[in-house]
Write a structure and sequence with these properties.
Elements lengths: L2 H5 L2 H5 L5 H13 L1 H18 L10 H13 L7 H45 L6 E2 L3 H7 L19 E10 L2 E10 L2 E9 L10 E6 L2 E8 L2 E7 L3 H12 L3
Antiparallel strand pairs: 1-2, 2-3, 3-4, 4-7, 5-6, 6-7
Helix pairs in contact: 3-4, 4-6
Amino acid sequence: MTHEVWTAKLDAYLDGELESSELAKLDSHLRECPACAAEGLRRLQWKKAIQSAAAQRYGADPGLRERLQKKISRDKPVRHWWPAYAVTMAILLLLGGIAILREGSRRERNNRVVSELVDLHVSALASSTPVDMISSDRHTVKPWFAGRIPFTFDLPELQGSPFELVGGRISYLEQSPGAELIFRVRKHQISVFIFQERALPGRLPNMGPTDARSFHLETWTHNNLRYFVIGDAAREDIQALSNLLKSQV
């Protein structure tokens, strides 16, 4: 590949948005190409400057810097080695800072997605018509989504469980259409969101049950679909409904 092809991937690389295969290739290239490593370091420093308002700072490991400086000092007469040490330091700084930047970007994306889901759930709770398709029959609700969203999914049998299916509606996350299913358990409403994984930003981790503002959330992925279960019901209810859904996938 040409340098232009590699450098075009640097921003996605620094933001942790490359596919794993591309990520490994670019990692390897940066260790071998001083020019691309220097460009990556320049972009890393630029992104750090932007994130400084959020107090996300990066500093070189003092121990690492001290060891490199001592090594350079010992080999000072061999001046032709100096460029190699400069390149090595640039690569180490770049690769060391990437993990910090990726973690900050990943956390910011995840928080944004969770915040949007909470808003969607609260909107459904506050609406006089929380669902577009009112039915407790999964065989009625599931076909209603056909042609309205670009994927299909299965719903569990609720007989013998404390959960009741209220109905469903179309919701949008990051401008991507998905299914929102409303369940009721002991006067609490739980939203189940299903979206295509590739339509969401970055790679969300499987979590749950965890706290999301004043709600509980569990999320996982299966067959390229991302599931979110969110509500103010007890953690045990969130997990129980999640387990019922997982049993169908």
